[in-house]
Amino acid sequence: MLRDRSGSTYPVDHSRWRGDDGSPLSYDDQPGITCDDVDATERSIWRYRRALPVTFEREISLGEGMTPLVTNEVDGEMLKFKLEYCNPTGSFHRSGRRRSARGARGFVR
Fold it and tell me: Is residue 69 within a helix (H) or strand (E), and if so which, with residue range?
């Protein structure tokens, strides 16, 4: 369910971008996923599809979601870095925009 600031709830499958009170919507607590829920055969962000509260007729992907994680020493500390520039689009902003576009497209009737 979606909930606005006043506490009113709305089903997630309705075309709605704000509550009747004009406030933004947020999802009620979701159950989350476990490692078993991650589709290890999928080489895109859609491997986490079970975490989404809705399903999509068609999944769109630019091939993002498999950026490497590397370890490097900085000032004597071992740190991990996620190399977002290795995304096919060259930018981490693209994956978020693609998810937003896909979510909006799912509500078009």
Answer: strand 69-74
CA–CA distances in Å: residue 38 to residues 9, 35, 44, 46, 75? 29, 5, 11, 9, 35
- Say which residues have a Cβ less than 8 Å from residue 96's Cβ, sequence separation at least 6: none
Cα separation, 39 vs 47, whole angstroms: 5
Reduced to 3 states, what is the DSSP secondary structure of residue 60? Answer: coil
Helix (H, G, I), strand (E, B) or coil at 86: helix
Q: Tell me the per-residue pLDDT of 4-25, one tens digit each, with 9 for 90 and over.
A: 999 999 988 778 889 999 999 8
Length of the chain in terms of residues written: 109
The residues pairing with 72 across neighbouring beta strands, listed in sequence order, are 79
> How far, rounded to the nearest angstrom, does the alpha carbon of residue 73 sit from its chain's CA centroid?
30
pLDDT in tens, 50-109: 887 778 888 887 777 677 788 999 888 899 887 777 766 665 555 555 556 555 555 544
**SS3 for 85?**
helix
